[in-house]
Amino acid sequence: MTFRVTLPLLALFLAVLPACGDASDDSSAAGGFGASGGNGFGDGRGGRSGSNLPGGGSAPTVVGGASANPGNGGYAEDTAGSTSLGAAPPPVWNSAKSATISEAWLQGEYSSWKAKFVEPCANGSLAVVTDGSVLSEGIGYGMLLSVAMADQPLFDGLWKYYQDHLGKNGLMNSRTAKCEAPGNNSNAAAADADLDATMALLQAAALWPNAPTLYRAKAEVQASKIIEFESDMCDGRRILRPGDTFGGCSDVSDPRINPSYFSPGYYKVFAQAFSAQAASWTALSDGSYQLYAIYQARMDNLVPDWSRPDGSDSGSQYSSDACRTPWRVAVDYAWTGDTRAKTFMQNMSGWVDAHGGLPEAAQQQNSAFIGGFALAGGYDQGKLDGYVTAWLSASSLDDSQYRQATLRVLYLLVAAGKFSSTL
C-alpha cells in the first residue's frame, strides 16, 4: 500500500454541506437505526429556477433560500454575514479541483443551509433540525461545515448539543427530539456521526489553536470510544460497526454493517494524531478497502447500503446510504493519494459513464446522488470538471430536503479542494 499525506496541521476551509438519504436510515430497529437504509427522498424532481452553476450569470440558487428560518431566534440572521473562510488549502491536495466553485458561492451555500436547518435551544446549544428531530448525523455534518467556515459560535453550539445527549458509552444518541432535555434517551449511537464529530474536533484544534485544549483532548477520547464500541475484529479484519450497541460480527442478531460510514481518510488522520491508537485505525483503513473491493466485484463497481460483516450480500442495493460512499473515498484520495481510493473512484466513474453519464446515471435527481458520483471523478481533472458541470446544471436537481441539502455543501467543499485534513 502506498499513500502520500498532506503536510502540517492546517485549519479548515470554506463551508457548505449536502446530503444523501434521509432520516429513514437512522430510525427504527436497533436503537434508532432502520434495517434497510430506505430511500426516503421521494422522486424529488421539482426542478429549480435559474442556474445552479457557480459564476453562471445569475445569483446562486442556494438551498432553502436566502432568508433566515422563522422562529430561529435570529441566530442565522445574526451570524450569516460574519463567517469567513478557514485557512489556506493544504500544501498537497491529490485530487483534481473544480475552479468554478468560488469562495463567494460557498459562502452563499453555507449561509442558506444554516438559515434553513440550524435552530437554537434554550440552554445555549444549537441543533441541525430535520422534520422536528435532531440526528447525530446532522450534528456531525454541521460541525464539519462550521469549522470549515471558521464559524466558532455554531461549532461550539453543535458540540454542546452533542455532549448534552450522550449514551451509556459516551457517544451521542443517534436521534433526539428538537432541543430535547439533556440526558441519555437510550438511542444507539451512529458511527458516521461520531467519526465526523471527531474529525471536526481535530480540525477545530488546528483552526483555533488558542481555543480551549478540550477540542483535541476530546477528539482523542472520542476516537478511543469509536475503536472500543464501534469497531469489531471479524475473521482477522477490523471493521466499523454502524453503532455502539448493534451491528458487526459481535452482534449475532443484527450483524449488518454500513459501507457509507467507512471513513478511511479520517482513519489515517487519527492514526497520526493518536499514536496509541494508530494500529487500530490503520487496520480499519485496510479493512475498509478490502470490503470496498468485495462490494465492487459483486456489484458491477457499486456498493450497497448495508452488507454482512464479511462483505457478502444482505439484499441491499446502491441507494440513499451508499450514495455517500464516493464522498468518503474521495476525501481519502484528496488527503493521502491512496491508490486504492483512486481505483475505487475509477471503477465507480466507469459505472457512471456506462450508464449514460451524469445526471442520467444517478438513481435520484439530487446532490446526494449526482454530487456523490461527481466526486468519483476527482482522480482526473477533465473528468471532475465534466461531472461537476453536469451535477450543478442538472435541470431537475432538487436539494430542498435536509440530507441532500447538507451533503451538497460538503461535496462542494471537496470538489473545490477546500476540506482540510490537518495532516
Number of domain units? 1
Structural class by helix and strand composition: mainly alpha
Strand % is: 5-15%
Overall residue-averaged pLDDT value: 84
User: Assembly state here?
Assistant: single chain
Describe the structure.
The longest helix has 21 residues, at 278-298. It is globular, with a radius of gyration of 19 Å. A hairpin with a 2-residue loop joins strand 2 (126-130) and strand 3. The strands form two sheets. A four-stranded antiparallel sheet has the order 1-2-3-4. It has a two-stranded antiparallel ribbon with strand order 5-6. The model is unreliable at 1-51 and 55-83 (pLDDT under 50). The chain starts with 28 loop residues before the first helix and ends in an 8-residue tail after the last helix. The chain contains 14 helices and six strands. Helix 4 (136-148) runs parallel beside helix 6, helix 6 packs antiparallel against helix 7 and helix 8 (264-273) packs antiparallel against helix 9. With 423 residues, the chain is mainly alpha-helical. The protein has one domain (23-415): Glycosyltransferase (Alpha/alpha barrel), CATH 1.50.10.
Annotate the secondary structure layout.
Elements: H1 29-32, H2 75-79, H3 103-117, E1 118-120, E2 126-130, E3 133-135, H4 136-148, H5 152-164, E4 175-177, H6 191-207, H7 214-229, E5 231-234, E6 237-240, H8 264-273, H9 278-298, H10 325-336, H11 339-354, H12 367-375, H13 381-392, H14 402-415
Antiparallel strand pairs: 1-2, 2-3, 3-4, 5-6
Name the features:
4-stranded antiparallel β-sheet; globular; 6 strands; Glycosyltransferase; 423 residues
